[in-house]
Design a protein that fits this description.
The chain has a single domain, classed as BH3618-like (Roll). Helix content is 6%, strand content 39%. It is built from one helix and eleven strands; from the N terminus they run ββββββαβββββ. Strand 7 and strand 8 form a beta hairpin. The radius of gyration is 15 Å and the shape is globular.
């Protein structure tokens, strides 16, 4: 299927790669269908691209690349979702990245309290809000 995007122009995606976000994306009501775009030109960043709005694409990154000790209870999360037969190896964990421009250059921060979890077995995607954590929604990944 063809998809028009703001960042990548028109791209071809496989229907089997579409992600369902039944609980929606906090702050973006009504958007429930996405695709993960991984482009070698933007690595290690990837994009959660809306299928409903070509201008909605969130920059994301694997948190373990810059915070190897990042922790969340994936087993508890799987149980709370009732995902029978799903193991932690069936999940992808990403965090949303924000790039802010300042006088001295760009600062890149990550939202460590709101990871996005992708279940590879059913293509269901959920943004989790971690509570009782010392993580920040503006964890500095790269300073200017």
């Amino acid at each position: 299927m063809k998809l028009q995007t703001r960042k990548f122009g028109e791209i071809e995606i496989e229907e089997s790669k579409t992600l369902s976000m039944p609980e929606g994306l906090p702050g973006f009501p009504g958007f429930e269908r996405f695709v993960l775009i991984e482009d070698p030109k933007t690595a290690p960043f990837c994009w959660l691209q809306s299928l409903e709005d070509p201008s909605l694409a969130l920059a994301m990154m694997d948190p373990f690349l810059f915070k190897p000790d990042y922790k969340m209870d994936l087993e508890g999360f799987i149980a709370s979702k009732g995902w029978e037969g799903v193991d932690t190896k069936d999940l992808l964990v990403y965090v949303v990245i924000n790039i802010s421009k300042g006088e001295k250059g760009n600062t890149i921060t990550a939202n460590l309290i709101g990871p996005i979890i992708i279940n590879l077995k059913n293509n269901e995607t959920i943004q989790v809000v971690l509570s009782n954590t010392s993580y920040s929604h503006q964890h500095i990944v790269l300073e200017p």
